[in-house]
Structures are given as structure tokens and as C-alpha cells.
Write a structure and sequence with these properties.
By secondary structure, the protein is α+β, with helices and mostly antiparallel strands. 41% of the residues lie in helices and 25% in strands. The chain has helices at 29-47, 58-65, 92-111; strands spanning 10-16, 19-25, 70-76, 82-89. Helix 2 (58-65) packs across helix 3. The longest helix is centred in the last third of the chain and has 20 residues, at 92-111. The protein is globular, with a radius of gyration of 14 Å. The two termini are 17 Å apart. The model has no long low-confidence stretch (mean pLDDT 88).
Length: 114
């Protein structure tokens, strides 16, 4: 799973005008497939209007609360080793939210649950 294989995951984050562009990948084909599936599943969960995860975490709760003000698009990398995600906020709060979420994900990849 992604948690146990986070040391094989690489990530770049770039702030854009109204959000972020991230590239997340692995040289391990299985981990790359998990990254792709995870992004697809989280996008579907956010867009479902009745889903949510980690409700005890204020940031994740706010992501689901503000789902109508955030747009996420993603593509599999051309080399098949992960995904490129573009997240944009429809307002200043949405933009700040996607940037904060990107920081949390990057930190998790570095440190795990610690």
C-alpha cells in the first residue's frame, strides 16, 4: 500500500495562480498504479457529495465541506509512473485549502504518520 511504500514515492509541488500543480510518481510499477488509483478514488469521493475521510482532521473536513469551490483534474504521467494533478480554488479560501492539502500530503510522504 502507499503508506508502507512511501519511501518509493517522489513528489513535486508547484503553486500556480489559483492553486497547485503536483507531480507524484514512483519507479516501482505497483506503487505507481496505487498512486493513480488513489487519486482517482479520492477525486470520486470528493465529487460524490456524500463522502468524506478523516473527519477528525480539520483540514480534511474542510476539503469535503468546500468541495464545490475546488476543482481537481489529473492525468497519468506520459511515462506511466504516476500522476500530474492540477487543483484550483474558485476563491481565495479554496486556493489556500488546496495548497495546505498539498503540503500535508508532501509531509506525509516524507514522514509517514509521525
Amino acid at each position: 500500500n502507499l503508506v508502507n511504500n512511501r519511501k518509493e514515492i517522489y513528489r513535486k509541488v508547484k503553486n500556480i495562480d489559483d492553486g497547485i500543480r503536483t507531480t507524484t510518481w514512483s519507479d516501482n510499477p505497483q506503487v505507481s498504479a496505487w498512486i493513480d488509483r488513489h487519486v482517482a478514488e479520492m477525486k470520486a469521493l470528493v465529487e460524490s457529495q456524500n463522502g468524506g475521510i478523516r473527519w477528525w482532521d480539520d483540514l480534511f473536513a474542510k476539503v469535503f465541506e468546500m468541495r464545490d469551490y475546488v476543482d481537481l483534474e489529473y492525468d497519468t504521467r506520459k511515462d506511466g509512473k504516476g500522476v500530474v494533478v492540477r487543483q484550483r480554488g474558485d476563491n481565495a479560501c479554496g486556493t489556500a485549502l488546496v495548497r495546505a492539502h498539498a503540503e500535508v500530503v508532501s509531509d506525509f510522504i516524507k514522514r509517514g504518520h509521525n
